[in-house]
Amino acid sequence: MTKFLFKHIDNSGLIVFRIVFGLLCFLESVGAIFTGWIRRTLIEPEFTFSFIGFEWLQPLPGNWMYAYYMIMGIFGLLVMVGYKYRASMFMFATMWTATYLMQKSSYNNHYYLLFILSYLMVLLPANRYASLDVKINPSLKRISMPAWCKWVFVLQLFILYSYASIAKLYPDWLNTTAIEILMKNRANYPIIGELLQQKPLHYIIAYGGILFDGLIIPLLLLKATRRYAFFISIFFHVFNSIVFQIGIFPYLSLAFSLFFFEPKIIRNIFLKQKAYYNLNEIIIPNYKNLIVTVFAFYFLIHIALPLRHHFFKDSVLWTEEGHRLSWRMMLRAKNGKTTFRVIDEATNQLIPIKLSNYLTKKQQRSASTKPDVIWQFAQHLKKDFAKKGIAVKVYVSSYVSVNGKRYQQLIDPKVDLANEEWYHFKHHDWILPSK
């Protein structure tokens, strides 16, 4: 295993990936500015629903989040050109992590992927060729890298796609109910809107998604099927980009193909002036045990996180306990009707609460269907009234529909959520069971 991990291979794939990755980091950052995402998600809300435990992370006041994202985009460009690479990559990773943790109303799996990839990239020697760092300091130049630099990507992708495939193996996906609901929201798309409503296409999407996610990594690893798998990947990801409009994720996924093709092919296409490395030297550094230990721990965590929902009561589709950080992508549609009853503890009087006075429309959807966000809003109401010198209890009446099924009561209306604790690894009994 040591010889396998520390055998040197040509580094063309990693070098080109750094360039593409930096460009995508830049586009993701500036795209959030020009599409209005920052305004809708970080500026207009009175406060944001951060990941629980990170409530202290809130957007900068006024329009400063525009400057924040522009600076983050500049770090992406510095990564692309390879200037002060590790520092630039670390700064982007840190800034992206902060924005990822400070809001979850627009939760997206590719935000999570970008978060973990950014820190992985800090550790990799991705600036050893075609970079300003090498131009400034030629002694940094290398045309090879240890094989583990490739296999961390392959294993990460295998975990991601495998769990994404497994998560689709549930009745509402298999009978295309979930797909049909997702496509109804896209009926107004020009040209393809009507096509997306066709039942045969729903079955193709449903079962094609399972097969693609489950098989794409093995097919890319096999030389006999690699080229066909790559062309299927192009179609699959471009389709997702057009239909679901999920930012850079489809193009980042295509960029991962750089680690599956022979380095010589990558070098001949993108880095024609680069010498090709084929010595297959085995260079074992003194800190090899640290590298192996760190990545073994890292991958054990990523294998375990998507399994944690099995240790909670009821379905993750209903409770959402264990939903995030688990590669559960585009799986269900939820609608909710939720009201918050605030009671003054001193007078026992009802204080009317209008959600639109506190939350944007997007936040209201989350605060109507997601138990953790419902709990957070109850906590926010408690703190908000405490500032006015009023101690309150918060009760919630919430009815939720999953994938178009009948509405069921989600939250126990007799429980004062303002005085409930949150547990990351324990079921909350105030989330009522689905029937």
Q: In short, what is this structure?
A:
The protein has 18 helices and six strands. The chain has helices spanning 2-6, 12-34, 37-43, 64-81, 85-102, 109-123, 132-136, 148-167, 171-174, 177-184, 199-221, 223-244, 249-255, 263-270, 288-304, 316-319, 361-369, 371-386; strands at residues 8-10, 144-146, 334-344, 350-351, 392-402, 408-409.
Topology:
Layout: H1 2-6, E1 8-10, H2 12-34, H3 37-43, H4 64-81, H5 85-102, H6 109-123, H7 132-136, E2 144-146, H8 148-167, H9 171-174, H10 177-184, H11 199-221, H12 223-244, H13 249-255, H14 263-270, H15 288-304, H16 316-319, E3 334-344, E4 350-351, H17 361-369, H18 371-386, E5 392-402, E6 408-409
